[in-house]
Amino acid sequence: MNQKSVALVTGANRGIGLSIAKYLIAAGIHVIGTYHTNEAEAKTAETKLSTDTAKLRMLKLDIADHTTFPIFIVQVKKFLYEEFSQPALKYVVQNAGNIIHTRFDAATPEQLDNQYNIHFKGPYLLTVALLPLMSDGGRILNITSAATRFYLPDHGPYSAMKGATEVISLYMAKELGKRRITVNAVAPGAIASDFGGGLVRDSAEVNRSLAELTPLGRVGKPDDIGAAVAALLSENMQWVNGQRIEVTGGQSL
User: Fold this and answer.
1) How far is the C-alpha of 62 from the C-alpha of 72, rounded, in Å?
2) Up-side HSE of residue 44: CA atoms within 13 Å toward CB?
3) Which of 2, 101, 124, 153 has a CA between 20 and 30 Å from the CA of residue 117?
4) What is the pLDDT along the chain (253 residues), one digit of tens a residue?
5) CB atoms < 10 A from the CB of 14, how many?
6) What angle do CA 139, 142, 147 make, to 5 degrees?
7) Cα 45 versus chain centre, distance
């Protein structure tokens, strides 16, 4: 990575996405981050993370509504030229998401559509829309979930969409090889954040039970993932491609 590179990180206003932005900026990478509804939180993140060598600039994005992507792409182009004086993105990190907790046999069609649009269709189509803005030799990281490897109660629809993302990541890596763009999936385990209503962070019982499943004796923190993503985007990791990389501390081995 170098100081002239620009990354796009979806869902960068909080949690894992905010940590990813923080670590990339610390490495000298400018970040275009996205948020969904909380503009005040996004502006606070801009102020908090921007430095003399790298800046965070936030754009509103509804990842579930692909009809808004053409306007979003125009905004990204404008930021690249006017804010960063760069012709292209070097990195794309698809992180934005939510979770609807439900058994597979209780999920409504609307809930399935929500998880599909936010975790698969939206990121898929956004990546396609961003490809003309990416430099050859760039990197794409898709944030998925360790729950594609093991069972967690009421995670079925969410995990299924993340599993689909891991599969398409393989195809992306193969088909973008001619442009030397690598594609990998990063699968976090239990993270103490506001994701999912803050259950892992705020419930002592849930936190303790998940920590007991982890050899290192604790649940993860957003910075565990932010640091890992920054490492995977470094020049030292340019030969890693088409991989699912789990960052869990060994949860549920």
Assistant:
1) 10
2) 7
3) 153
4) 444 899 999 999 999 999 999 999 999 999 999 999 999 999 999 999 999 999 999 999 999 999 999 999 999 999 999 999 999 999 999 999 999 999 999 999 999 999 999 999 999 999 999 999 999 999 999 999 999 999 999 999 999 999 999 999 999 999 999 999 999 999 999 988 878 787 778 888 889 889 999 999 999 999 999 999 999 999 999 999 999 999 999 999 9
5) 17
6) 150
7) 16
